[in-house]
Amino acid sequence: MLAAASGAAERSFVDAATGRSPLDNASARGFARAAEAICARGGGRAGAGLDAGAPLAAAGVALTQGERDRAARAALGPAAARAKGEQLLKAVQDASVKPGEAAPLAAAALRLIGEGADPDCVSENGNSTLKLASREEALDGVAARLVAAGAQLDILDRSGNSPIVWACYSKRAATALLLVEAGAALGHFDKGGGTALDYAERYGLAAVAAAIRGQGGRTAAELREAGAEPPAADGGGVRWGGHGFGGGRVPPQGARENAARAALGPVAARAKGEQLLKAVNEAWDKAPNEAAVPLAAAALQLIGDGAELDCVDEEGNTPLMKASRAEVLDAVAARLIEAGAQINLVNKNRTSALIFACHAPRAATALLLIDAGAAVNQVSAFNGKSALDWADEKGPASVAAALRARGGRTSAELGARQ
């Protein structure tokens, strides 16, 4: 068991016999949480100058993206993190109102989160960074990163609207699923008297609605029957089918990308498709290193530009197969599904995107694939496992339940039926 180090001297001590610092020891033993805490409090690696800001990647610590972001924030301190947080909020605000500049602004936002920006700054209207990111398709990746980085999930704006309500209202299924999995409050009424479940059901987000119900979420009518009262509608907030972001004012995501692909023509779309495949493959290779982030942003841009979605590499992997396996590519996978990528292609090992998502495990991607009609009983020739085999083994339970609801079976059950 590691002893707690309470002072800078202990954190920066280098053992003369081994030449190792506490961070070196924590990294070598795979104690990710301990290494994160040491880095956040100024500890460093022997031979790296014991710099307080030494990157976690340089320490060789296998942390998740969110853990690295939180450690960077702790290392900055409240004042510096707040200053970066204001820059982050502005980048996200600008991305939401400047569609032509959304991709570079989203990339800037991802960089700021990685540098330790406070994720919970709010605008003068009470809009949190997460709430703004939850309603915009160009900011799916930013929303996912904010959730992983520990952003507060239930900050309400001045009209009483939460990120999960906005995500469902704006039909951002991947973001909504991440918020549900992260524990967002589901019983909140918006100013229009609706809940997240109302909007998920209204706009046909079946996987989101199932996930919300699985966590105890209810419609406004069901909550009223249980005795809850919505706030009085006073002209603010989300309106049923009315004004605001989402609400059908723009064509669906996939329709815009199909139009862009048609406008390019098959040769140009194919060329962009090869670029997309390369960007996704490189992002997957570099994940979870920070270098994967701009590659994921480039992939999103290429999809929006009309890239062909189903190019394959030498192993038969499509962009969707690779994107289904990495946290940093969650938003890319969601965008590929919405844009009409073929979801049931298999690689040379007969492994599908759904099997990859369940193995990773990437729950939001798996649920989106299931909802989109992915074949649930494909069995990989590589290891003889189905998607349900992996979902049962790695969780979460919501994925296994969704697979069974669509007729999914384990490889043993499928063998017994033959």
In words, what does this structure look like?
- The protein is mostly helical and 418 residues long.
- Among the domains are: 8-63, no CATH class; 258-417, Ankyrin repeat-containing domain (Serine Threonine Protein Phosphatase 5, Tetratricopeptide repeat), CATH 1.25.40.20.
- The chain contains 24 helices and no strands.
- The model is unreliable at 1-17, 28-33, 46-62 and 231-252 (pLDDT under 50).
Descriptive labels:
single chain, 418 residues, mainly alpha, Serine Threonine Protein Phosphatase 5, Tetratricopeptide repeat, 24 helices
Assigned CATH superfamily of the domain at 258-417: Ankyrin repeat-containing domain
| Element string (H = helix, E = strand) | HHHHHHHHHHHHHHHHHHHHHHHH
Q: What is the total tally of β strands?
A: 0
Spatial separation of the terminal alpha carbons: 50 Å
Q: Please estimate the helix content.
A: 40-55%
Rg from C-alpha positions?
Answer: 22 Å
Strand proportion, as a percent range, falls in under 5%
CATH names the topology of the domain at 258-417 as Serine Threonine Protein Phosphatase 5, Tetratricopeptide repeat
CATH architecture annotation name of the domain at 258-417 = Alpha Horseshoe
Number of helices: 24
Class based on secondary structure composition and strand pairing: mainly alpha
Unreliably modeled segments: 1-17, 28-33, 46-62, 231-252
User: Shape, please?
Assistant: globular
CATH class of the domain at 258-417: Mainly Alpha
Q: Which sheet architecture does the biggest sheet show?
A: none
